Records
---
Amino acid sequence: MSFNAKIKAEILKTLIEVTSPLVSEVKLNIGKDGISLRAVDPAHVAMVDLQLNKEAFEEYQADEMELGIDIDRLNAIMRLSSTGDIVSLEYDEKNNRLIVKVGNLTRKMALIDTAGMPDPKMPTLDLPGKVILKASEITKGVKASESISDHLALIVTDDAFEVFAEGDTDIVNLKLPKDSLVELESDGKYKSLFSIDYLNNMIKPLKGDIPITIKVGNDNPTRVEFDIAESKGHVIYLLAPRIESE
Amino acid sequence: MSFNAKIKAEILKTLIEVTSPLVSEVKLNIGKDGISLRAVDPAHVAMVDLQLNKEAFEEYQADEMELGIDIDRLNAIMRLSSTGDIVSLEYDEKNNRLIVKVGNLTRKMALIDTAGMPDPKMPTLDLPGKVILKASEITKGVKASESISDHLALIVTDDAFEVFAEGDTDIVNLKLPKDSLVELESDGKYKSLFSIDYLNNMIKPLKGDIPITIKVGNDNPTRVEFDIAESKGHVIYLLAPRIESE
Amino acid sequence: MSFNAKIKAEILKTLIEVTSPLVSEVKLNIGKDGISLRAVDPAHVAMVDLQLNKEAFEEYQADEMELGIDIDRLNAIMRLSSTGDIVSLEYDEKNNRLIVKVGNLTRKMALIDTAGMPDPKMPTLDLPGKVILKASEITKGVKASESISDHLALIVTDDAFEVFAEGDTDIVNLKLPKDSLVELESDGKYKSLFSIDYLNNMIKPLKGDIPITIKVGNDNPTRVEFDIAESKGHVIYLLAPRIESE
């Protein structure tokens, strides 16, 4: 069983940023055509699914296998890498370790037994409201809402996308009409409520103006998707709704 | 009763920086020619008076009225604005709210009842020592003093401005001779002691090399003034003296 | 007894950065040709020796004397200086103070009685493994190790320099082969263990790519040296080994 790959440091850091808010350990599914992971947070509120095609790597050679990764350990060495560094990953079957090399620096990282690790299924969702917008917009809406409430509504209508939060005295509203969105597809009004803490975790890895896709239904989960690694990788984030108490 | 205005984000942020160290709530006096505020800290040691002419605004239309503002709430949305953003302010009389818009983001902010809010009078002061200097100079003098004492003296003589602090063992002294000042007017030596904590609050909104005017008497308050909003606004800061214990 | 000198702010800051992790008070030995200091931390694990030739100063005039410096006090005024500022130092014999001036700012700093202050001797050490490398390399090795252990090994062989740390599950290794070092001199393998806390203090003042010399023996202290002040000054850092418990 072998796994030998080289990848740009910033792509591996994105994998860490996407996964670490939800879980401390993750199972990497290594395949012939790339790697993938799927993780659910302990409270079962959010799921992240990440794919990295082998084209996202500088070099890639792998048998099919699972690697149990402690994300803090991987992050400890990745924090010492710089943009432009190439990171080498090698499976050491004998010692059950992943050997991570950045330049002259090596970390031989113990792997975690994947036997007990979950294999979450991606639920099938019917989410009829869909928008594509710049990441910075949703970031601004979440940040503005967190000062007045612990939850907010994502709303897609036939002519706009809205973030809406209501506190004891104040209201925050981000309204993006159709012409300030990259794309909008909706035959009506769809609205669900979400935890701002979870949305804050979700927006952490989002950089500047990358386009992200948000799908919304009525009192249903939201599905947020964006490309990584120059479109040679993809992230799907699912977040369960909060049920309106009124 | 209507109030509708547009203003550069950085000017509104200056208003927050000047006011927030002293009070958490402030009454804005809205007039036909601009807005003003006057606030005194709970210990009655410092007073700030701020004027913004209607020329400081991009658009301005107002009846005379008072708006009670919670500064933290205003700051929460202003923190999400960028330099160059234009902020729209609109009084919603029906709901007693101020509607603050930055781009596509809206905060409908509950107003505070101004009935109980103080209307401090600006005391008439005879402060015969006057200097104009770069803001960065007074900032340096206060920062150097805070490591040895909790109070310092501001001193104006006929040929220099000085900041003087004395600790148990050490002395800090900033001496600016007349030729390194923008202006000096004094017929003798004037000296008063002030709390460094309060001075630290006062210097927070001071940026780089803007000229500030400082007036000093003997054991009297100091009056510090500077322009904001490209001279279309003005701040006066009064600070009561500490009485020398010797 | 007189001491009058002018020096670039950044050189005086380096003196503070080198010394402050080990001691809070230090004796400066003032001589006709420059100043020096030698300090040992309270646990007697690390020693620092610093020399500044009079050529490192803009102006220098001194009788031989000792000055007891409280490093926090010196740092308080130096923090307000900028790169390029010239700092003036003057001994005030009458008041037993050091008068430190940065621009218009003066701190008259009480001196500490040097009578009780130690005069540590530099031990003679036979350390046959010697390498010269870029400061950033050792910094990276120490930072990578601190996530898995509280100590690491420095190893010099006849063809490489290595940093090696072993935790409960993981191994960190920085290996610099001869051709990626500035210089290597060793007739065999030399290895000693050191505390990562102390190494972290040692690397703090190291900037970017300056060359540093590291000497290693077997279970012996390490000696780390580097130039400061454009080679008109020099720092020697000695660190006692930790004894391997196996």
Note: Residues 9-19 of chain B form the longest helix (11 residues).
---
Amino acid sequence: MSVQLDENGQLRHFLTTEGLDPALLTRILDTAESFSGVIGKSVKKVPLLRGRTVINLFFESSTRTRTTFELAAKRLSADVLNVSVDTTTTKGESLLDMLRNLQAMQADMFVIRHSQSGAAEYFARHVDPGVAVLNAGDGWHAHPTQAMLDAYTIRQHKGDFEQLRIAIVGDIAHSRVARSQIHAFNGLGAGEIRVVAPNTLLPGDIDSLGVQVYNDLGAGLRDADVVIALRLQRERMQGALLPGEAEYFRHYGLSEARLRSAHPQAIVMHPGPINRGVEIDSSLADGPRSVILEQVTNGIAVRMAVMSLVLGLQPETAREST
Amino acid sequence: MSVQLDENGQLRHFLTTEGLDPALLTRILDTAESFSGVIGKSVKKVPLLRGRTVINLFFESSTRTRTTFELAAKRLSADVLNVSVDTTTTKGESLLDMLRNLQAMQADMFVIRHSQSGAAEYFARHVDPGVAVLNAGDGWHAHPTQAMLDAYTIRQHKGDFEQLRIAIVGDIAHSRVARSQIHAFNGLGAGEIRVVAPNTLLPGDIDSLGVQVYNDLGAGLRDADVVIALRLQRERMQGALLPGEAEYFRHYGLSEARLRSAHPQAIVMHPGPINRGVEIDSSLADGPRSVILEQVTNGIAVRMAVMSLVLGLQPETAREST
Amino acid sequence: MSVQLDENGQLRHFLTTEGLDPALLTRILDTAESFSGVIGKSVKKVPLLRGRTVINLFFESSTRTRTTFELAAKRLSADVLNVSVDTTTTKGESLLDMLRNLQAMQADMFVIRHSQSGAAEYFARHVDPGVAVLNAGDGWHAHPTQAMLDAYTIRQHKGDFEQLRIAIVGDIAHSRVARSQIHAFNGLGAGEIRVVAPNTLLPGDIDSLGVQVYNDLGAGLRDADVVIALRLQRERMQGALLPGEAEYFRHYGLSEARLRSAHPQAIVMHPGPINRGVEIDSSLADGPRSVILEQVTNGIAVRMAVMSLVLGLQPETAREST
């Protein structure tokens, strides 16, 4: 049984999109939708997490991701604490002591980012009943809220997943985002998920992920409804897997011209921050097909949804605070 | 047309005091006054910006300035996010991407501090309608909220600007504070604005600023009603413009003795933090003429006022939250 | 007269547990108890410090202590500002200027941590009437809120102090925690306070502290009701006072076996973070006698109590905010 579900199959932590059933994935998207109206209005706060304490526990620095979780928590009226941990100075069992101590301060939720795969699950296995753990990215393993905000954005533009061809382009091997997207889109019943990458940037277990593999960008984009560029994680590349950024762009960079083989209404996505001219051309990133900034906006509502669901709170009952 | 005003001449961003008409400058001061009562009471919060998100985007570190904006925003019940950016690692177009991303998180206001003149205006030209930019200091260009809190403090003590002689002493050339003060005080109809400095510390365009230039401190202070010492920005001085701090103090440092030529009721101001014994003597800084700490206190109300006005909110309608 | 009391003997700052009378110490514990119910409920906030500003002014970094004060302040609905100061760049009089400036921003309370003994009292002597200073640890001198949360935890488990034998084990000489505990427990009328340490880790004034000194752990623990291990402050040890950590554990480390000479119901405490296998064995730290994590939880309520009392606020009148 998954550590992230309770005995009734409800979300108790949010660690991975792998293995989640369509009903639960859809419930996250529906809940996020109920918060979207809140975000669009001048008073964006709901008192749903009032009196609750959310601790952002970041072992890997990321202003961008930390900020979206902080904003989501504040819009739910939670108190937020940011704790940055330098893993070079804190190791092994003392990590668990740190968790227990923060928990003893009556934290209700930990948002954890860590460079090691499995870190969030490790914490989830050790927190007290009633305390929730959200994975904000662990190693090459998972980044589930990113995948759900992507799914949310796709649903907004394309509706039902069953008819969709979704192409994910770039460094699949080192991308926790790609892994979480593949599991989420498969769970939501996507028609076809393609990964487009050179063999050197494919993970060893690619055959088991339920995707079609393309080495050629033109073929991979053909008739695609959704095209997702991944960020080139330079810092994650070990050794010379790539001949260079210009060479990468020539083979796998997205541009208006390359998109011609895709569906005429195809949308273009990117988890950000973008490397202009490396994985995506500026005119495409800033053009009408791009929904990149919508992804960012949707990230707040999706994170509010996950934060509410893991605490068993019903956003339907949330009255607007005034 | 100025980017900081809308078509009705109302404040939409706050980038500079240059070119603002007396009515608008006075409106800022009046609005600040309406918040001052709030600050003096035990419950200092008003719900005027409840549900709004203010992002402090500091490309130049300044605990002091960041803190006053953070306090002002919190007293208006806004949610505040602090984002520090290391400009050595983020350049050119990616700055704009960062702004667009933060904006996509539904920020309502950016408070920007940057080492380059024009940075705040650049951001103001690129934000969405409805998002406001406040300049918290850009290069040698402007620091408009500092100038307005100075104007507020002067009005509190001296009333009408028309009869006033205001002397600004020190490194005018490298002072964004002095520039913003000169524009604000001229806009408010100050009787006479003097700058007192060696020629090496005067800007090239000094003749166009509407000030009287004095190289001699005694002459510059004669009958002055307001005496403002500037901070010696050692880090901004390029090369040997000054023979040394002791020499500087001997010629331009303020003291009780030097103030004798000023008006008997003259007040002494400084934007802080003060270099004791360099631009001002300790006994003067801590004495009865000094309003330096009042400036700090007034800074909260003035920043609350500007934050409300750029969002088009009427503090008159703000009920105290309980 | 103590700077921390007003003319009516009420708490105005909280700098040290030394010299506080039993009624005042008990009042802190009772007030904390009134907040404990708040912490145990799903809505933990009270509006008692709403509109007040608490500034955490940390000259010595400590995520853990800063976090507990921040949480306590937020649960009282205060606005909290965190200011970290690098003492290598800020010295002497400019420290006082910094305090005056922060105070001019209408701060209501400073929580101060500093590596020099007496720093908190120095600030307390210089703040305006109405502004409170809390000592969050100053050099080897005092850490009074830690001592009070320890006293709170002891009272919870053991009731009246008069019958209790309390043994404090470890590096007494370099421990501000031990000093504050000794003063607090003596003030509360503890039956017997023992310190257990090698002579090299005893302070020079140990004879004046009202404690029994033991060099031998077995003898020191005999029939003890409360056993407190101190953290081995490696960074505070000057020179070779100890032969090594393994040697330390062999003589002064706590374990289930060593505790056999203590009272069968003895509780084990530690101010945290623990060095497992150095001052305490893991199985003891995680076992049923250990109340180490309860200490952390109680720290929130105790700090809420002190924050309320120094501002003269009655938690009895605090209605729960909803």
Note: Residues 22-40 of chain B form the longest helix (19 residues).
